Amino acid sequence: MEKTRKKCFSTKSALYVEGQYSVLKICKKTKKLSTLAKDDREFASCVLALGVEAGEVCDILGKIEIEGHFYVLYVSEASVVARFYDKNESFPIYRVDRVRALPLIEDDQFSGFITENKTPPNSRQGHPVGNVATQAANKFKLGQKAFMKFVTNKIPDLLDEILRLFNDVPDFYYCHERDITHSTQRHFEGVNVPDERFFWNKNLLNDLLRSEFIDVRHREWIIPIVQGFIQNKELYLEDCDKSSIPPLCLTLISRRSVHRAGARYLRRGIDDDGYVANFVESELLLNIFGHHVSFIQIRGSIPLFWSQQGLHYRPPLTITRTMEDSLLYFEKHVHRLTNDYGNPICMVNLVNQSGRELKLGTSFLEHVIAQDSENVEFFSFDFHHHCRGLNFDKVLDLVAALEPSLKEIGFCWIDKMGEIVRKQKGIVRTNCVDCLDRTNVVQGSISQMVCFGQARRLGLFGPLNDPPDSLVSALQLLWADNGDSISTQYAGTAALKGDMTRYGERKITGIMKDGYNSASRYYLSHMRDARRQKAMNALLGVEEEIPKQIDEIEDESDEDANVGRLVLETAHFLLPENEILIGGWALVDARNSTSQCDSVLLLTRISLYVAFYDDDAEKLLEVKIVPLEEINAIEIGRTSRTSRIHVRVVSSQGSWVFRAGETRLFSNVPIRIKNNDEADEYIQSIAEQLKVTMDMVLNRTTEITFPQRITTGEEGAKKKIAQMFSMLGKVRFSKSQPTNAEKSNNNERTKIPDLLTPDVEHEHRPSSVVFMDEQIPQADMRTSESDSHLVGLVSRLKGLRGVNSNQSQSLSPFTQLIPKIDKCKPKIVLLHAMNFRTRALLALLCGLATVHWIISYCPDANPFAISSDYEDPPQVGPGDEDLVFTNTMKPNVDRGAQLLDNASENSTFDANLTAIVHNPNMFTPQLSSLPYCPPHPPNLVGPIRVYMDEPKIEDMEKIFNNLEKGGHGTPSKCFARHRVAIIVPFRDRLPHLKILLHNLIDLLQKQQIDFAIFAVEPLANNTFNRAKLMNIGYVEALRLYPWTCFIFHDVDLMPEDDRNLYSCPQQPRHMSVAIDKFGYSLPYRSIFGGISGLTKEHMQKMNGFSNSYWGWGGEDDDMSSRVVYSGYKISRYPKAIARYKMIKHNEEKKSNPVNPCRHKLMAKTRIRWHKDGLADLNYDLIQVDRYSLYTRILVDMREKESRAQLAKEGFPRC
C-alpha cells in the first residue's frame, strides 16, 4: 500500500497525529509519547472541540531533548526509492527527503493565539478557523525554521546540526510494512524485534519501546529508520520475452551501524564494547519469479584501538593500546560477528603492506593469530600495490582466492512460497583504512561474482554465457552510488566533480559547488566534524565528551615529508612496473583557494599522469593518463584569481591548471618553499622539465607560451576513481600505450568463475600483493646452465637458511610471523607478489610448511611445481606468477625438493605427489580422508533453466575444466556419497550429446556426485540395440571405476529440476516421470523408459537388460517386468521434480527401425529374463576414447551372431 500523509492536531496540552489504525499522542506537559485508539473519547473530545488542524506529516521519527527543551522530529517529505517483495506483495521503501522539528511547548504563545479566536476551531465540523490559528497552521506547513522562529525566535545550534544530518544529503530510509533493519534472511526467519545495530531513531521512540505491552497501536508508530544507501534497478535481460518473463529487480541496501557512528577522524577502530567505526552491512537482493535471493557483506574499521586526529596534513595513524590490552575487545568483536552472521568470519584486509599503514596491517594479523579461532579466515591484499598501474582487474585475483570461502558461506534463497531454501552462513568482512573506496571496490567485485552465480542458478543465463551487459552495468552503477553515499556519511562531504561522473559534462551548479568544496573541505574535515559528532550522539542518545582536535600546527618538516610520501605512493600505485618515473610533483589545483596540495603530476617517457586527491590527500578522486604526443600546449601565466604563477597543460583530453603549494621536491627530497618568487620558479622548472622530456622523446620542439591570463575552465570528462574501480571488466583508460591486459592479448571480458557451484574447482592463478622493496639479483642465483632449472635452484637454495634478518624482512613484512601462522588455527592467506627466486628463497628461509602451493615458470626451463600431497596445483603459463601463503594445508616442502633433486635436468615429472598408486587405465578415486558430503546437497534450488542450443566443446572445456580426462568429476571439499556412471546409448547424434553434457555436468556437480558419462556407440553396420548398449556400458564402466550406481540415460532428455537426484535408492528408480512431449504426464504406470537408475546389485539380480530388442521398442517394458520379477518396485520422484525436456528430432528409420517382434519377445520375458541379459552378453570392444568431458565406447554388438541365436529360440524375424 502506498503512503498516505497523516493529519496533525494541536491543543494546549498535546499534539495528536492520526494514523491508519491509531492515534499518536505527544503530551506537551510530560513530553511522553503514547497511543490511543481512533475512537478514543480523549481524541474525539479534545481534538474536535479544542484542536487546530496544524497540517500533515509523512511520519513521526520520535521525540528528542536538546538543552532542556523537547522537540518532535517528523518527516515532511519522503519518496519511494525501492520495494520489498514478499510472496505476491510489494512494499515501498521510502527515503527521508526532509525532516522538520516541532517544539513541545506548553506556553502562552501558542495557546494564546488559539484562545484569541472566540470560536474554537473545528475544521472537521466546518467551524471557521481564526486568523491567528490559521497563521500558526500555515507556519507549520511552510517550514520548520519559519515556524520555530515564530514560536521561539531561536533554533538551537545542536538541533540545526541534527536536521542537517537528515536534510543536507538524504540518506535515511524506512518502510511501514517491513522492518528495514533486518536482512532478507532475518526477516523470513521470523525475527520481529528491530535490529538495534541499525535502528537510528530508537532513542527517539523510547517511550513506546519501554511500554510494558507493545500492541498493534504501538507497532504502527515504531517505524525504524536506517542510515545508509538503498537503490533499486529493474531490468530486462537481453533476448528475453518481456511479455512472459518479468523484469529482474536488483536492490542494494546498505545499513550503517549506530554503534561507534561518527565522523572519520573522530571515529576509528574499536571500542570497549567490541563495536567498530564505519560498520556497514550491505545486502544485494535479486527478485524474479517470486524468488528472493540475497548476499550480505560487511565493512568496518580495523578492530584495534587506533586513531587519526589532529590538524595535520594527512594525520598520522596511531595505535593507542598494546595487543595485550586490546585482544579481549578484538575477541568480543569476532564473537559479535559470529552471533550475528554465523561462521566462518572471512576478514579481508586491504591496507598497504608498506609505509604508514603497515603497522595497522601487521597488528591486525597478530591479533588474528593470538585469538587462534578456527572460525576466522584472514586474507591480506595490498590493494594499492597489487592494482598499481591502474590494473584494477587484479581484484579478481583476490576474489578467486576467496572462492572456497564464498562457497562455504553461500547465500540466502527464499522461494515463491516464502520458505527458506538455503541460508547464508558466515560473512565476508572487508576493510581498508577508511573502509571507503578500496573497500567498496572489493565488495562490488565480490557482489558481482556472487550475483552472476545466483543469476545462473535462477536460469537467467547459462554457464557458457557471459553475464548480460545490462546486468553488469546495473551492478556497477549500484555499487558506485553506494560508495559515494557511504563516503559522504563517514568523511562528511561528497567527492568533487560528481556531476562530471554522472552527466559527462560540467554544470554551472557543479562548478559553484566545487568552488565551495575546494575552499572548505579541509576546514570541514577537521573543524565541523565535532559538530556533526555531537549531533549524531544526541540523535542516538550517546553520552560522551567529544575530544578536541589538536590545535598546534604540524611541524613543517613532517608536513614536507608527508608531501614527499604522497608523490611516491601515487607513483607506486599508478605507474606500471616497466614505466620509469622521470619527475613527480605535488601541486595545488587552480580551483582550490587553499595552499594544501591536492594534485600529483607524474612524468614518464610515455605519459603524463594527473591525479586529483581530496584536501586531506586521503582519497584519490580522479586520474588522467595523457600520452605525451597528445599534449598540445604548455602555458605559464597568472589566473584571474591570484597573482601567483600557474602552469597549464593542454591536451586532446582536456586542460589542467596548477600552482605550487608550500613544498617543492628536489631530487625527490621535500623542501619548504619560502616565498612566492620561489614558488613561481618551481612552477617554471616543472614546465621546463616537461618540455625537455617531450622534445627528447617525441623528437620535436615544444614551445612554452606565456598568455596574459590563464583560464581555469575544465574540458573533457573525468571519471571518479571510485566508479572506475567498480567497472573492473569494462574500464578503459585514456592512454595510447597498451595496457597489461592488451599486451597479453586478453581482449575478451574476464570469465567469471561460478562461485556457487559447490563441486567445481575453477582454475585460477592465486594473486599476490606484498610490496617488494628488493629483488634477488639473477646472477646471484645462477652459476651454471643446470641452475637455470628448478632442480638445481632448489638444491642450491636449501643451504640459504642463514640469511640475515634484514634480507628476510625485505622479502615480506610478514616473514617474522610465518612460524606463528603455521601453528595457529585460523585460515590465513597472504597474497604476495614475487618472482620465482624470491618465492623459493622465502619458502626455504622460513621452513615454509605453510605454503599452499608454489608455482614456478622459468622461460629457459621446464615448468615444475611443488604441490601438496592431496591437491594438484593450478596450471600457469609464462609471465608474472603469484603465491598464496596459507596455513590450511601442510605439504612437505623437503620431500618436494628431494623429488626435484632426483629428477633429471631434462625430464618432466608428475606434480601430483599423491600417495595412492593407481592403475593407469582407471579413473582416480577420491581420497577417503575427506569428510562425507551432506545427505542433501546444499546448493539445490529446484527448477533450473534448460539449455537447448548446441554448445561448442571447447567452450564447455573452459567451463568444466576440473574434470579428469574421460569426464570424471568428484566433489572438491567432501567425499561423495554416490559413485554414479551415466550410460548413454548413442549413435549419430553428437549435437544432442553436446546439449546433454552442457546441462548434465553442471547438475551432477551441484549434487556433489562422483560421476562420469559414458557414450556407448555401435559400429555403423549394427542395427541400434539400446538395451544391449546399456549392458555393454555397465560392464565397461566397471572396468574403469568401482561404480555403485548406474543411470541409463537417453541422449535427448534434459532435466528441468536439480532436486531430481542422480543417485540410486533401494528400489529401482524411474527418473523421467514427466516429459514435455507427453504433457508432463506419465503415459502409463509401468513405464520404465527414458532414464532409469539402478544399483550394481539391481543389475546383477535382474540380469541387466535384455539383449534381444534390435531396433525400436519393447526393451523398456521388458525391463519393467524384470523389476517386478526380481521382487522390486519401481520408485519415482513426484512429477513436479522429475521433469524433462525432450529434444525434437527426426525418426531414425534406417538405423533404428521398429522391432516387428517386440510384442512376442515381451510375452516371453518371464521365461527368458534369467538367461537373456548380462549372462549371455557378447560383443567386441573396438575402442575407448577418454575425452575431456566424457568417455566414448565403440563396440561391435555381433548382431549376426545374436540374431541367429534368437532364431534358434523361435524368433526367426527378430
UniProtKB/TrEMBL annotation:
Membrane topology per record: Single-pass type II membrane protein
Pfam name, any one: Glyco_transf_7C
PROSITE patterns, A to Z: SAC
UniProt-listed GO biological process terms: carbohydrate metabolic process; phosphatidylinositol dephosphorylation; regulation of endocytic recycling
Keywords (A to Z) from UniProt: Glycoprotein, Glycosyltransferase, Membrane, Signal-anchor, Transferase, Transmembrane, Transmembrane helix
One GO MF term: glycosyltransferase activity
Compartments where located: Membrane
Pathway: Protein modification; protein glycosylation
Major place of residence: membrane
Gene3D superfamilies: Spore Coat Polysaccharide Biosynthesis Protein SpsA, Chain A
Domain of life: Eukaryota
GO cellular component: clathrin-coated endocytic vesicle; early endosome; membrane
Ranges of residues in domain SAC: 163-492
Family statement: Belongs to the glycosyltransferase 7 family.
Protein's recorded name: SAC domain-containing protein
Species of origin: Mesorhabditis belari
